[in-house]
Prior knowledge:
- By secondary structure, the chain is of the alpha+beta class.
- The protein folds into two domains: 2-68, CATH 3.30.1330.20; 73-125, Helix hairpin bin (Helix Hairpins).
- Helices cover 46% and strands 17% of the residues.
- The chain is built from four helices and three strands; from the N terminus they run E-H-E-E-H-H-H.
- It has helices at residues 13-25, 73-88, 93-98, 103-125, and strands at residues 2-9, 39-44, 61-68.
- It has a three-stranded mixed sheet, with no helix packed on it.
- Strand 1, helix 1 and strand 2 (39-44) form a beta-alpha-beta unit.
- The longest helix is centred in the last third of the chain and has 23 residues, at 103-125.
- The protein starts with a strand and ends with a helix.
- The relative contact order is 0.17.
Amino acid sequence: MSCCFIYRGDVAHRDIFNSLNELKTKNKIKLCKWISTGFKVGVNASKPAIPSNFNMNPVEQSMCMISNSTTVIQPFIKTTDDFLAMFKKSAFVHWYQGEGLETGEFDEAISYMCDVIEEYNKVIEE
């Protein structure tokens, strides 16, 4: 759907642009039509900082990608299906009720998950 790239170190802006352009032009990534660029890029010229107690060699450059993807829908669907199968049998419900959770809260939670799945399906169809 969209991506944020955060670069640290001596990174050439031209290299970043070329990489992102390749992603777009070769259809290696599908972006939402309603997001104008689909990418957000941040560049920090200072070298990546590594805490002294980390067992990691220093590096000159690093990149972090944060993305939102519709592939997350599969675990949502599986979790919802698993929940419904157990809830239908009232499996483990007594433990939650013993802690003060009401049955209506289960219904509310599953309704929320179904709404999230529906929203992701709408994005996929666009």
